[in-house]
Amino acid sequence: MVNYIWVGMTVIGIVFALFNGTIEDVNRAVFDGAKEAVTLCIGLISVLVFWLGMMRIAEESGLLEKLAKLFRPLVKILFPEVPVQHPAMGYMLSNMISNMFGLGNAATPLGIKAMEELKKLNGGKNSASRSMVTFLAINTASITIIPTTVIAIRMTYHSTSPTEIVVPTIIATILSAIGAVLIDRYFYYRRSRKG
Amino acid sequence: MEFISLISLTFIPLLIGFILIYGTIKQVPTYESFVEGGKEGIKIAVSIIPFLVGMLVAISIFRASGALDAIMDWFRPFMKMIGVPAEIVPLLLIRPISGTAALGMTSDLIAVYGPDSFIGRLASVLQGSTDTTFYVLTVYFGAVGIKKMGDALKVGLLADVVGIIVSIIVVAFIFGTK
Fold first, then answer.
1. For residue B117, which phi and psi values (nearest 5 degrees)?
2. Which end of chain B has fewer CB atoms < 10 Å from its terminal CB, N or C?
3. In this structure, are residues A135 and A110 in contact, taking their beta carbons and an 8 Å threshold?
4. Within an 8 Å CB–CB cutoff, is residue A175 touching chain B?
């Protein structure tokens, strides 16, 4: 999918430029685009180093674990089919907390672990269980507390207030997660009515 | 909306202070841990360079050729009806499909229209509050061999639509539409 989008944008752009007489701009765009990407990544280094450093302290001091415990009652309501002491619960909680703090790289392996456990709970079947659909819905709504990458991009382009989007992002992310859970519940009840 | 901006401003410094104090109480070697964690940040930033170079070159070509403007012109009348800038449409289309393409699109929008414009702020909030549904689905289901996804894709995409609508409303409400 990504491959088609990537080739599509480039080829359509080049063909369009040939007919539109903008081929010179396209020439410049190739090198400007590449240069901008590198500049952007260098801008990202500062924020990523600082934030991941902070998160390592939060992790080693047990702060993340404590936060996961705090969310346990809420998650229990979301996943009525998963026993509270089941390892799936722990993995799902850690995954959500990692996502919340912008630790995407840590979140993915935890999410896969959670899926494995959910599959065991579902008798090893190769179809998605109710809990799996709920877990994915919450994941794609991605609850974020600190949008580190976005802040770095805004800094690179000289925003007068790079962090002003923090609270709006938190509000939007919570509302969309609630929306995701409601949509998930709706589809679940529709399924269970059918059969 | 001064109040919300104030919380946004103080939130990160307070969180940093809290993490450091908590770490000290729990006798974590704070500085050493910070450095160890930070090393990972360099790795991540460097490893995304090729992804972003690829995507930003494609987006730059697409924009410079005039093709992007042509597409936005199609969407403009419809988007005007619902009060959303057409410039945001390409980002909306790409967000559920590819994370790096969306990141490239977001930074392109911020670069072109400015981080403190309506479009720049909207792109910022959208980037932070939605995720790559197709990627999450493929990776998580693929890794454990789930073949029948059930309602997962429908639920995920509808959740994205909710996220987009909510982001537009929140940004317009807090910052206005300028």
1. -90, 170
2. C
3. no
4. yes
Q: Which residue of B has its CA nearest to A61?
A: B23
CA distance A98 to B44: 16
Among candidates B41, B67, B25, B98, which has minimal Cα distance to A149? Answer: B41
A106 Cβ under 8 Å from any chain B Cβ: no
Which of the four pLDDT bands, split at 50, 70 and 90, describes residue A100?
A: confident
For this complex, say whether ipTM is above 0.85: yes
pLDDT value of residue B121: 95
Q: What is the pLDDT of residues B87-99, one digit of tens each?
A: 999 999 888 888 8
Assess A144–B contact: CB distance below 8 Å, yes or no.
Answer: yes
d(CA B41, CA B47): 10
Nearest to A176 among B64, B94, B130 (CB): B130
Helices (H) and strands (E) in chain A, counts: 8, 0
Amino acid letter for position B56? L
Tell me whether residues A163 and B9 touch, CB distance under 8 A: yes
B32 close contact with A: CB closer than 8 A: no
User: Any idea of the CA torsion for A165, A166, A168, A173, to the nearest 10 degrees?
Assistant: 130
The percent of chain A in helix, strand and coil, each rounded to the nearest 5, is: 80, 0, 20
- Chain B residues with CB inside 8 Å of A122's CB? none
Per-residue confidence (pLDDT) for residue B168, from 0 to 100: 93
Q: Tell if the CB–CB gap between B20 and A56 is shorter than 8 Å.
A: no
Dihedral of the CA atoms B45, B50, B52, B54 (nearest 10)?
A: 180
Cross-chain Cβ contact B155/A168 below 8 Å: no
Phi, psi of B95 (to 5 degrees): -55, -45
* Closest residue in chain B to residue A125, using alpha carbons only: B146
